[in-house]
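Students often ask why we bother predicting the structure of a whole assembly rather than each chain alone. The short answer is interfaces. A chain on its own may look different once its partners are present, and contacts between molecules only exist in the joint model. In this exercise we take three input lines together and write out one structure for the complete complex. Read the inputs first and try to guess which parts will touch.
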Amino acid sequence: MTKATDTAFVEFDRVQKSYDGEVLVVKDLNLSMPKGEFLTMLGPSGSGKTTCLMMLAGFETATHGDIRLDGQPINNIPPHKRGIGMVFQNYALFPHMTVAENLSFPLEVRNMGKSDRQEKVKRALDMVQMGDFGGRRPAQLSGGQQQRIALARALVFEPELVLMDEPLGALDKQLRETLQFEITKLAHDLGITVVYVTHDQTEALTMSDRVAVFDDGRIQQLAPPDELYEKPQNSFVAQFIGENNTLEGVVQDIKGETCIVKLDSGDIIDAIPVNVHTVGERTKVSIRPERVEYDKSRLSADAHTLKAEVLEFIYMGDIFRTRLRVAGTDDFVIKSRNAPDQTRLKPGEMIEIGWLAQDCRALDA
Amino acid sequence: MSPCNTGDNIMTDATGPMMAADGRPLKASLNRALRRQKLRALALIAPLLVFIMFTFIIPIGQMLFRSVENQIVSDVLPTTVAALENWDAETGQAPDEDVFYALTQDLMVAVEKKQHTRLGSRLNYEMTGISSLFRKSGRSVDDIGEVYADQFIDLDPRWGEAEFWADLMGAEGLTPDMPFEMHPDVFTTFARAAPAYAAFAATIASEDGDDPREEEPWNSVYLALYEDLKEAPKFTNAPKGIEIMSEFAPQVVDFETIDLAAEFADIDEDWVDPAVWQTIQTYAPEFTNGYFLNSIDRQKTPDGAEWRPEDEQIYLKLFWRTMLMSLAITGSCILLGYPVAWLLANLPMRTANVLMILVLLPFWTSLLVRTSAWKVLLQQQGVINDLLVWIGIVADDNRLALINNATGTVIAMTHILLPFMILPLYSVMKTIPPAYLRAAKSLGATNWTAFWRVYFPQSVPGIGAGSILVFILAIGYYITPEIVGGTKGVFISNRIAYHISSSLNWGLAAALGTILLALVLVFYWLYDRIVGIDNVKLGG
Amino acid sequence: MKLTKTLMATTALSMTSVTAFADGHMASEMTIVSWGGAYSASQQAAYHDPYAEMTGVTIINDESSAEAVAKLRAMNEAGNVTWDVVDVVASDAIRLCDEGLALEIDADEQLAPGDDGSTASEDFGDLLVSDCFIPQIVYSTTAGYRTDLVGDTPPTSICAMFDLEAYPGMRSLERRPINNMEWALLCDGVAKEDVYDVLETDEGQAQAFAKLDTIKDNVVWWSAGADTPQLLADGEVVMGTTYNGRLFALIEEQKQPVAMLWDAQVFDLDGWIIPAGLSPEREARALDYVRFATDTQRLADQAKYISYGPARASSAPLVGQHATLGIDMAQHMPTDPENAKNTFLYNYEWWADYRDDLDAKFQAWLAQ
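Now the answer. The structure tokens for the assembled complex follow.
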């Protein structure tokens, strides 16, 4: 994995975007990514991620702020001069051209000689394992094949930066996983910088060096996948990434690295203060389902525990998923590995649950 | 996966066809199941089918028929046409007495039935003057043979009595309340008079509701009688009327006779003009290619088809002009319509709707209003010319001729037909995702390259659909060219309309229409060969 | 409405016993076809309204006279003739009669005698150009010119049409050979009485086309009677031909700077025909109508509304003033002796023969 270098390759500097002059769809965006990074913009629809991508590609202009590529401001450079490869959501393969013609197109407009073109097209097709399909029309290909061609077309003119706009959205799960792997591998092998937009968090987590979570026109958190999952900076990110249990309450005490939260139900729990700073502040406490323990022997002796009633037990093969009633909520979920010694809880059973304080994060309300 | 695995109702044996569960062949079983579906589908489209049948197929069939149909000559002049078969135009002589005799008999019936002038109009298309020849002859033909009628009555007053004739020619046992009927034998005895009398009897009965038993025969019947008696054939058996034949035959030898050809020449010199007879002979067959030859500026002659005189050639020129101008109109519709359609497809909905109303405006404007508007705009003292003079581009004494010529037709028809180009273009452009243009630009194409290499090829099906629509509509237009086309801007359809409503030469109109239809089909075929008809889209 | 009409009809019947006896056998509704516009309006006022008032008949107007021949032929072929009386020009009447599409009329038997005691055939005289034709008006195709565009010497002869030197500018002529060929020959030195003899020969036709060639580039060809008045009013043409009634309206009603050129104007006739193949009731009604509508008084009445001359000699003394303008109509009639000093007689028979041939040549000439 390439580590980010100090020199920024792509840079958003206080970028704002408004379409109608009333609402900002992108608010004060600052982002800096080094060469060779695979960065994903993740967020719900309408969060501004695609607009950011389009501004980078040159199809939208920033209302305010600078976008820099390799140190040069590109706000006034038309898209076709930016030299950025792009893969579109529905592939946008030109239906009236064959696969080879599609690939040859960017080379032709760069006035490349015919033999060079043929060679490059062949190499690009081989790269995506589509060497035999040059003579076909896009309509004769399956979705996955079209996606490979779209990828090859975006790479054939050897851009340093490639943008991908939900490229796998229309494919089935299995194919998506295969292609996720292939795209990451290609990107790393070729050493290109990739900005990838998706609303699928699994995709974001598995493919990226860093993920920028977008909401409401802002980056909510920009971090490597593990940090994003394990250390969400706010309740939106915690909710949006992975499955999450939320309990609401008031901060009762803060002691350095830990704090005590009194839930609305009256129960007391331990947490680490991430986004809370004063006693008496309302907070949402976030616990990942797989970090919840109901085996007392695994908890520290002074850990606070909560009473819980088992409502539902779902067998999911590799894991068990159990829904509990805890502290007044009915949708508290725990996940446990299907290990030989694992207990299978039964609905109606009363248990006690707890967790390590560092797994429980007190976030903004 | 082979189909026999898919269900347990289907059995198969190693050699025979696949069988359904009930032992019938699977194919038959499937057909039976589909038949009901097909019938239902047929029932659903039946009203449309009937409608198209009556409003489209049958009229086109009638048009095709009319373009070759020519029964009027042999219908009106049946015996003349038969007698003319032996006449050779090459001799340069008028036909012999037999033909004139047949003409007398045919014309007499035709005049009573008022068919001779119609035939005259028909033949006048082929030769100038025949119209009045027939009209004039119609007034005088009943006098031919009068000299014989007078002599017969002088010989025996009974010849002047309707009753006597009816007894001679009529069937036996006729009572007054029965319709008159000929005796079959008299056709043997009176080889000429009997058919002539029969024609007389049938004609006055059908035209005026008269009874031959109360009407004195036409002079032409006396002429026929004289011809019969003159030859006085001897019969071995004794058919009806033989005694009359024997009684009068010897007495007619002294009759004053007439020369039929001279009689007709008396009515009009043209009757002894071989050219007239040649025209009748040429157009005697029940079907003719004459109209089609006429449609391509050729004409029928005894020596086959040849070009019409140069100062009458017009149709090929008009066909050619119609094609060229329709192409010009189609071209200008593409040029003007493409940007508008592009705007429509890419503007926000609300603005696009306003623009669409402007595009559709010509549809909602009455022809009269449009015409006045064009005149006001385009004429030499019109708005555009005034404007150009005011700006100083055009000198006042050298104003542009924008109307009453080909320019006027192209301008006006482009205006009318533009929506037919814009609408298919618009609906095709609507389906071209903007992502293609973006993709092209991201791949390094300039705006123009992206448009020309990526967008334009995908809009070609819309251009194709629009062009076919506009071209086919243009080729058949006639009102607009008539109004603004002057002399250089009229189409072949204007001649068709003229022949339908003014000259009444419907056969020629049908032939011209058929050729126009064929041309459209040829263009359609060419289009299919060059562009491919699958490449035509009216929308998504 | 219907009741009122019936009542009125009854009243009328009790007063005028003439038509009463036949009424039982006549249709109570009739369709009359005419040209529309001011012309139909004059017929409505002069004929339809009094006839409907007198008989209670419902009259339906149809403005299809321009396509009358083709439509009648189509109706006849379909076996369903829906028109009862049709207004056509004389040449169309001849065609319809030739085609057997119009009823033959015995003028003395079926038309009213003249007020002056003459028989109908004497009264109409030569105007009975076809057995099927019941003359109604005499009109003429006449030239008019812009008084402000012809300089100090306004044209006095039709040959001004061919004189581009003295009268430069565009002129409008009808898009057909009829009239134009005759004028061309007249202005090329052919004597009036020889025109048709000359035109019969190829050389004569070539001569006429050659004369027309001299002004071909300066002609706007019209096909509708309203074109020339419009072109004159817009100043698009210096002079042009049209029907004299149209020019009358342009000059007297619209007060445009236009004047009539009464020279070698071509007399033509317009009148009624009754389609062949009507049911006896409808035929009787149609005959009754035309007998009424073409009597001496009615023909004179029409001239109150439009400047076309009545077809009966006996009507001429009865022509009075225009119904709204109040001017004497006699001097605006094409039949007025002052206007008819030099007229040209249109030869129907000749054109019936040469129409197809010359039209083909004319169109070919136009397209060159």
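Check your guess against this: The beta strands of chain C are 29-33, 58-62, 85-89, 134-146, 171-174, 219-222, 239-243, 258-273, 309-310, 343-345.
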